[in-house]
Amino acid sequence: MRESNYRKKLVEYLKKNLKKNYTEESLKWALIDQGYSRTDVLRSLEQANKELAEKVPVLKEKPVIKYQIIDENDNPISIKKPLWKRILGL
User: Fold this and answer.
1) Tens-digit pLDDT profile for the chain (90 aa)?
2) What sign results for the dihedral spanned by CA atoms 29, 30, 33, 37?
3) Is the terminal CB of the chain with fewer CB neighbours within 10 Å at N or C?
């Protein structure tokens, strides 16, 4: 019981700091340097990643990526297809 409570606190700490955009490596080595065992840190990090992955929304459709070229005055530049591409329909 005590070990599971210890691991839960470690998982919560990791989740909180991963949300703050700390890297996994920096958190891992900071905890190991503070005296936590390497196996406990790695297992807790794995559990934290699993719990965070469960909360991520699922994308139902692929995003459409549109791009255009703009000049230095933020005006869009239209590029014409070469004649042979227009004739062949490419």
Assistant:
1) 467 788 899 999 999 999 999 999 999 999 999 999 999 999 999 999 999 988 888 878 888 888 888 888 888 888 788 888 888 876
2) negative
3) N
Q: What Cα–Cα distance (Å) separates residue 8 from each residue in 3, 23, 43, 66?
A: 9, 20, 11, 44
Amino acid at 77: I
Dist. CA 87–CA 65, nearest whole Å: 27
Rounded CA gap, 21 and 88, in Å?
50
DSSP per residue, 50-83:
HHHHHTSPPP-SPPPP---EE-TTS-EE--PPPH
Cα–Cα distance between 28 and 21 in angstroms, integer?
Answer: 14
Q: Distance between CA 50 and CA 71 in Å, rounded?
A: 45
